[in-house]
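TASK: fixed-backbone design
INPUT:
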């Protein structure tokens, strides 16, 4: 007797519409240069004001080279903090797409109740469906989109995005695990039992979609914290260095 199918077939969902939907949802690559340039410009402007207002020619000369380097480094770090916030906003749209795809997969499973009852297909749990939608469909398309939109820094941004995505997925899957009912045993299930389970899991997905925004915000703060900590430390050290130089040269 052939074994029931144990993996979901997502080939039918890999279509241009999915690529377009994720491509339209991911807007942060368009803001990469702007998000980095503006903080650098702000830091350089502050440095210029310091150069203009100081009375010490020695300190003005010190600001000329080390000061510019410190301004650029602090500006880039601040830009990365702001950029992670931009990624967070787009991730909300990406996981809304993942939720819709999960519901679509559940609807397609509903049309295969007969095969499930005959043992030709296995009825997967909701956590498995959501996980597979994320890892097999959404994340690969998301990473290819970043690689296409950000040719030079695509690898670095993709690494941050992958970590962001995986952390969000893990938290949402943990919520699903607490909320979902186990799927009925296919060999003994009646069609109405399978239909009722599928409707219940769809309600769980809808509730998850409504709460995913809060999860994305919390994970965003976790991902942004290292960048924020490094920026705060470097900014403080830069301020102390400039103050020390002013005290010594002023």
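OUTPUT:
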């Amino acid at each position: 007797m052939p074994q029931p199918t144990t993996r979901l077939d997502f080939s039918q969902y890999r279509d241009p519409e999915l690529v377009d939907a994720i491509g339209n949802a991911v807007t942060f690559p368009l803001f990469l240069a702007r998000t980095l340039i503006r903080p650098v410009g702000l830091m350089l402007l502050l440095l210029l004001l310091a150069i203009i207002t100081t009375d010490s020619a020695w300190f003005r000369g010190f600001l000329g080279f080390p000061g510019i380097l410190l301004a650029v480094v602090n500006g880039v770090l601040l830009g990365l903090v702001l950029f992670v916030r931009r990624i967070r906003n787009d991730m909300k749209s990406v996981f809304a797409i993942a939720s819709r795809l999960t519901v679509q997969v559940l609807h397609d499973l509903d049309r295969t109740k007969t095969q499930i009852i005959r043992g030709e297909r296995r009825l997967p749990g909701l956590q498995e469906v959501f996980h597979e939608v994320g890892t097999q469909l959404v994340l690969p398309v998301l990473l290819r989109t970043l690689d296409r939109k950000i040719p030079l820094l695509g690898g670095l941004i993709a690494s941050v995005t992958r970590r962001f995505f995986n952390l969000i997925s893990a938290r949402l899957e943990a919520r699903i695990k607490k909320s979902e009912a186990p799927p009925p045993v296919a060999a003994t299930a009646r069609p109405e039992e399978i239909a009722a389970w599928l409707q219940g899991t769809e309600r769980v997905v809808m509730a998850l979609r409504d709460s995913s925004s809060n999860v994305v915000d919390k994970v965003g703060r976790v991902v942004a914290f290292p960048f924020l900590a490094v920026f705060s430390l470097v900014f403080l050290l830069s301020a102390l260095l400039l103050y020390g130089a002013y005290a010594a040269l002023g």
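COMMENT: The helical segments are 16-25, 32-53, 57-110, 113-118, 126-149, 154-179, 191-249.
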